[in-house]
Automatic annotation (TrEMBL):
It catalyses: 3'-dephospho-CoA + ATP = ADP + CoA + H(+). It is found in: Cytoplasm. It holds the Pfam family CoaE. Keywords: ATP-binding, Coenzyme A biosynthesis, Cytoplasm, Kinase, Nucleotide-binding, Transferase. InterPro entries: Depp_CoAkinase, P-loop_NTPase. Catalyzes the phosphorylation of the 3'-hydroxyl group of dephosphocoenzyme A to form coenzyme A. Its EC number is 2.7.1.24. It comes from Deferribacter autotrophicus. This is Dephospho-CoA kinase. The lineage of its organism: Bacteria, Pseudomonadati, Deferribacterota, Deferribacteres, Deferribacterales.
Amino acid sequence: MSLYLGLTGNIASGKSTVAKMFESLGCYTIDADEISRIVMKKGEKAYFKIIEAFGEKILDENGEIDRGKLKEIVFNDDSKRVVLEQIVHPAIRDYERKLVSEIKGRDSQAIILTQAALIIEKKSFDRFDGIILVYVDRKSQLERLLKRDGIDKELAEKIIASQMPYEEKVKYANFIIDNSKDLEHLKSEVNRVYNVLKIHLYTKKQIKKVDKGILYKFFG
Ligand SMILES: CC(C)(COP(=O)(O)OP(=O)(O)OC[C@H]1O[C@@H](n2cnc3c(N)ncnc32)[C@H](O)[C@@H]1O)[C@@H](O)C(=O)NCCC(=O)NCCS
Ligand SMILES: Nc1ncnc2c1ncn2[C@@H]1O[C@H](COP(=O)(O)OP(=O)(O)OP(=O)(O)O)[C@@H](O)[C@H]1O
């Protein structure tokens, strides 16, 4: 039996950083943002649909989709973001499904984590055995986002506002990983969850809706 987890959290919460830590423990990870880059490449089905919906002005000098331009558009207009999601999400899901079944075919004891920001917003959690939520406090989130992406504060605030707040998200999580402190602390959080996952893997015990002692540690 393998385990298949959704690894989610709001922008710049540390999903990629956490995924790398799980990888170093032997888990398989899949990144929905990376897949979105693959399925939107020049010549792919989603590429043409995006041009049809947004016009050629969103292309760069090489004819590829300019993600910066698209980002400005969709985070300033909710209806446009919905249009983009309707094009890209089904393509991401199809691609991801194939990767998961490939991994499961290769390794029957695999722990697979799909990293995606919108699992809870889109209520697309039924396919997973459990949800891991990476939590970051608002101040660190904004600081890390501005530092990493070099975008202006106004756009950063809009992206943050487009996502479901943590107070709501925690209700859907089986595990919470706190990433409000340093990387050492993050590593201990990842190890803690990994050890519980291993127990579930070997005992074949289903992950309950709420794994007590972990969930609500930060939210009372
Ligand atoms: C808007 C786009 C072009 C910006 O590309 P860019 O390379 O700058 O960012 P990247 O794809 O790495 O996403 C970074 C983060 O932005 C946030 N984000 C991206 N899309 C969305 C969205 N539709 N709603 C809310 N937040 C989003 C997520 O936290 C994500 O992890 C791109 O994010 C995109 O195509 N989004 C639509 C697909 C999508 O929903 N992806 C996110 C989850 S699968
Ligand atoms: N505990 C930490 N202390 C300091 N910086 C951190 C910490 N965790 C992550 N970071 C940094 O914060 C930024 C955001 O982290 P990361 O890219 O892992 O987040 P993400 O959730 O994958 O982002 P996105 O939502 O855009 O996909 C990165 O530059 C990362 O190096």
